[in-house]
């Protein structure tokens, strides 16, 4: 009797150490706040198991604050799971939730399994976020096992778990790792998909690359406008293996993976790919086949690729091509010498002008850059090129710089002889080297680049007419343009043409009374001012326009993660494992709930041991 009173006193002391779990309305439920589910502690009876009697140990309530004691059933259960958890499921799922436990001899095993598996899961998340290989040459010498052994020095439960002789119940096998990694990836993707489906529409971005095991991998990404936070996002959804690279095979693969992840594909309003024939083909390419299913999913060629192609095609001029070959040879001289490369990097870091130009190159790769900004910047470049072409002072400065470099290398400025019979050589007449190189190299290169920019970057897509809804461009918005906007977005507008015209008229009037300095100038700022309830048509049009991809930079960045995760020493990794580890590495700042991961893990398959208390 004295022993029983001491136990009850220990339980009351432990009760004061519990953190009270509060329900959403702010009130505390007795099941959650009291250690027994009642105000006064009961007497715990002894249970005869075999030839010996067993009693619930008070220390379990101190070390496991979720445990609650039922006096009517003389059993323990998980208070939060009993209160919030589902009431269905098999016998393993009901353990500690629907069906309380009074097997005091095995209670310790049930509790320690939960804590040990949680430590295993946290270690896997750590390795995934840091890009560490889980396995080594064998299963017992990898980072995963070694980190568990290191953590077990200060964790008695984990140490006892790792010292088990049974290998089947340790849950450290590659199959268990793959299952937990896959669940972590699904949780990350689930949050992204939830935000994407809340948005009125999204753009699909993808690219392909070959990994170190010569497997064709495709990176799946989405671009959408998050209405709640008023920001544009581009999110990586994972990798998928390409069985074939034909337009039909890739289309089926893309749509299947998006549907499998929970994306509502009918909300797709933009496609962003490179210019490969199987992607951009007019009749049998991916974008054409996708538009047969989703007619409003307009294709946009990656603007970064387009800019690169402009320069490549402009460099096909014979003299420019020879110059580029010489520059490539010089680049090899730096690339193959550590001393030369270090000196070059030091000089580049000290050149503020060069650093500024390098920062400008990254402009198109930012996810907050929309198509209107890309086209406007292209027009700026085109105008500057045209001005510099007609400015003799620009060429004189370039030629003087070339003479300065030539003199330092003991080269005399000259130009090739002119021969009338050699028709494949640039033979424009010139009196001096400056005139010759300007007529035969500078002007042809500038003219070619000017034409390429106009054709590849500044194209007249009908959807771009929505740019005149921006407050600073409303003075250029004619009735014909309003009709063009309505026709381009008619499937997404729940309005008649007359109603849309009236809404645009109210939109004009709103910004007439606002100073020009206070008018938003870009697409994202304009969407924030176009309230969804007051201007539903304009809001929908702008959301569609901002969701159209600008570049495939997000997909290409994911290939950097792929090469860090799947190396030549880890080339047997499956695509599912690669995708899960890639998601953990990309979204390393995201905090994953280990309890949620273990809950999904326990429900997904009937385990030999009860792992999670539901």
How would you portray this structure in words?
The protein has 614 residues and is an alpha/beta fold. Among the domains are: 104 residues, no CATH class; 151 residues, no CATH class; 86 residues, no CATH class. The chain has 26 helices and 9 strands. The strands form 3 sheets. It has a 5-stranded mixed β-sheet, with helices on both faces. It is globular, with a radius of gyration of 33 Å. The chain starts with a helix and ends in a 10-residue tail after the last helix. 30% of the residues are buried.
Q: What attributes does this structure have?
A:
52% helix, alpha/beta, disordered N terminus, 26 helices, 614 residues
Question: What are the low-pLDDT stretches, counting only 5+ consecutive residues below 50?
Answer: 1-42, 84-95
Q: How much helix is in the residues?
A: 40-55%
H/I helix tally: 26
Number of strand elements: 9
Structural class: alpha/beta
Largest sheet: 5 strands, mixed
| Average residue pLDDT | 79
What kind of assembly state do the chains in view correspond to? single chain
DSSP strand content: 5-15%
Give a brief rundown of this model.
This protein has 614 residues and is of the alpha/beta class.
Describe the secondary structure blueprint for this structure.
Layout: H1 2-15, H2 30-33, E1 47-49, E2 52-54, H3 59-63, E3 67-70, E4 75-78, H4 79-84, H5 91-94, H6 107-130, H7 143-151, H8 156-162, H9 174-198, E5 202-210, E6 216-226, E7 231-241, H10 247-261, E8 268-273, H11 277-280, H12 286-293, E9 298-301, H13 303-314, H14 318-335, H15 338-349, H16 352-361, H17 371-389, H18 392-408, H19 433-456, H20 479-488, H21 497-512, H22 523-529, H23 536-547, H24 553-565, H25 575-586, H26 594-604
Parallel strand pairs: 5-8, 8-9
Antiparallel strand pairs: 1-2, 3-4, 5-6, 6-7
